[in-house]
Design brief:
The complex is a heterodimer of chains A (about 300) and B (about 325). Chain A has twelve helices and no strands. With about 300 residues, chain A is mostly helical. Chain A has a single domain, classed as MetI-like (MetI-like fold). Chain B is mostly helical and about 325 residues long. Classes of the chains: A mainly alpha (about 300), B mainly alpha (about 325). Chain B: It comes from Kolteria novifilia. Chain B: Keywords: Cell membrane, Membrane, Phosphate transport, Transmembrane, Transmembrane helix, Transport.
Chain lengths: ~300, ~325
Amino acid sequence: MTKMPQATSLAIPMPEPRLHRSMTSFRTLFSMLMSILTGLIAIFAFVPLLSVLFMLIWRGIARLNLAIFTELPPAAGMTGGGFGNAIMGTIVMVGVAALIAVPFGTLAAVQMSEFGRNSSTSSVVRFCAKVLTGLPSILAGVFAYATIVLLMGTFSAVAGGIALSILMIPIVMLTAEEALRQVPMKVREAALGMGATRTQMVWKVVLPTALPGMLTGVMLAVARAAGETAPLLFTALFNQYWFDGNLAQPTASLAVLIYNFSSVPFKNQVELAWCASLVLVMLVLAVNLIGQRITRSSR
Amino acid sequence: MVSHSRPPSRLDVAWDRGFRFLTWFMAWATIALVLFIVYKVTESAFPALQRYGFSFMTTSHWDSNREKFGVLPEIWGTLYSSGLALLFATIFGVGVAIFVSEDFVAPAWRTLLKNVVELLAAIPSVVYGLWGIYVVIPLIRPMADWLHNNLGDFPLFGTPFAGPGMLPAAIVLAIMVLPTIAAVSRDALVNVPPRLREGAIGLGATRWEAIFKIVLPAASTGIFGAIVLGFGRALGETMALAMLVGNSGVISVSVLSPANTLSALLANHFPEAQGIEVGALMYAALVLMGITLLVNVIGELILWRASAGMKGAH
C-alpha cells in the first residue's frame, strides 16, 4: 500500500515566501523593458498626427487669404486662384446628405429604442446599421452612381449628397439609439401614467432629454461626410465654376479638389491642395469640437 | 379643481398611429437599404458577370479598348496592403490600448493620448494621401533604397523603390486603421474584470506577467475582433491607396513595388468609364463588397461573442 498522493504533496516543505523582488532579476528587467517599449509606442503614435498638423500649417498657411474663398480654382499652369466654389459645394452636398440622413436615422433609432425595444426586428436593424458602418465609402459612391447618376444621365450634387447620406445614416442612427437608451425608464413610465400616448411621450419627454447625445451623433456624421472623397469622385465629379443653385449638375468639393490637385506638376495647384486640406481639417475639427461641447455641457 | 390630465383625443391617437408607423417604416427601410445596395450593385455587375464569369477574378488585364478585364492583381493588392497595414497597426494599436488602459501615466496623459488617437480618426483620408505623397514617400526613400541595394535578394525588397507603391500605402493605411484597433482593443482591455488583474498581482506577478498571462488572454477575443474590424476598414479604404499605391496592376511580393487595389481601381476608372467597362467596374465593386462584408460580419460576430463571454465575469 502506497501513501496517499495528497499526503506526499503536503509533506513537501514550502519555500520561505519571498516578498521582495530583486531589481536585477530577469522578471523585473523584462517588465521594465516592456513598460518602456509601450511608452515608446504610445509616444510614436503622436508622431503622425504632429507631422500632419505641422505640414498642414507650414504648407497650408502660406496661401491662406481672402482670395481662397472668393476665387475659382486656377486652370493648369495658371497662378493665383482659390477654391470658394469647392467650399460651397461641400457645404451644399453635406447639407443634402444631412437632410436625408438625420430624419431617417433618428426615426429608425426611435423605433429601435422606444417602440420595438428588444424585438428581433430591432436586432436585425441594428445589425444592418453596423453593416452599413463597415461599408467601404467608395461602394456608397458606386451605389449612387448605379441608381442616381445613370438615372439622371449626369453627375450631380444630388447623387453626391445621397452617397454621403448612406455613410451618415448608420452614424446618426447608432448614436441616437445610444442616447435614447440613456433616458431613464421612470421618465417614460411617468409620461405614460399621465395619460400621454406613446408618441407624445417620445416627442415631449424622451427626445428633448436625449437631444444633446443625438446632436453629437449628427455632428460626428457631418464631420465624417465633409471629409469623404471616394463617394464624390464619380457622383458629384467636380466643377470649375460656382454652384448656382442647380442640384442636377456636377459640383465641386474640397475633398475632390485636394485629390485632383495633389498629383499635378504645378506648384500653384499643389500649394492650393495644402491650403484646401488646412481649411477642410479645420472645418472637420470645428464640427467635431462642437459635437463634443454639446455632450459635455449636457452632463 | 382643474385637472390637466385628459384622455388622448382622437387626433392624438391618429397622430400616435401615424408616427409609430413612420418610425417602423424607417427601421425597415434600413434593412431594405442594405438589401437594395447589394441588389443594385449585383444587378449592374450582371452583364460583366455573364460575360467574364469566374475568370474575371483569375486574370490580370484591364484593357478597355479590347474589352478584356480581370482583377487578380487588384485582389492581391487589396489583401496584401491591408495585411501589411494590419501588421503595423496591430503592434501600435494594441500597444496604445494597453498604455491607456493600464495605469502607466497619470489619467490626464491617458485622456490626452486617447484624444490624439481620436483626432487621427477625424482627419480626412484625402489629407493623409497628400501627406503620404509629400512626407512619407521622401522620408522612406533612403531606407527603401538601402533595403533594395543590400537585401535585394530577399523577395520582399526585390524591386527598386519607385516612389508610390505598397510600402508607403501600407504605412499610411496603418495610421488610418490604428484608431479603430486602439479604441476597440481598449474597450476589450477595460472590460477585463479588475479582480483578475488584482489576483495576479497579489500572487506576485510583475505588471507584464499580469498583462501577458491574465489580461491579454482574457481580452483576446475582443482584441481579435478589433483586428478583424480594422482589416475590414483597411480593405475598403480608397483615397490614400489611390494616391499612394502606384496604380499598376502587377502582382509582386516586393513591398517596394507599385501595385493596385480594388478600391483604387474603382476611383481611377469610374469617372471616365463607358459601356462594358462600367459593368466590369461594378463586378470589381461586387468583389470588394463581398470581401468587406464577410470580414466585417466575422468581426462583429467575434465582438458579440466576446461581450457575451464577459457578461458573467462582472
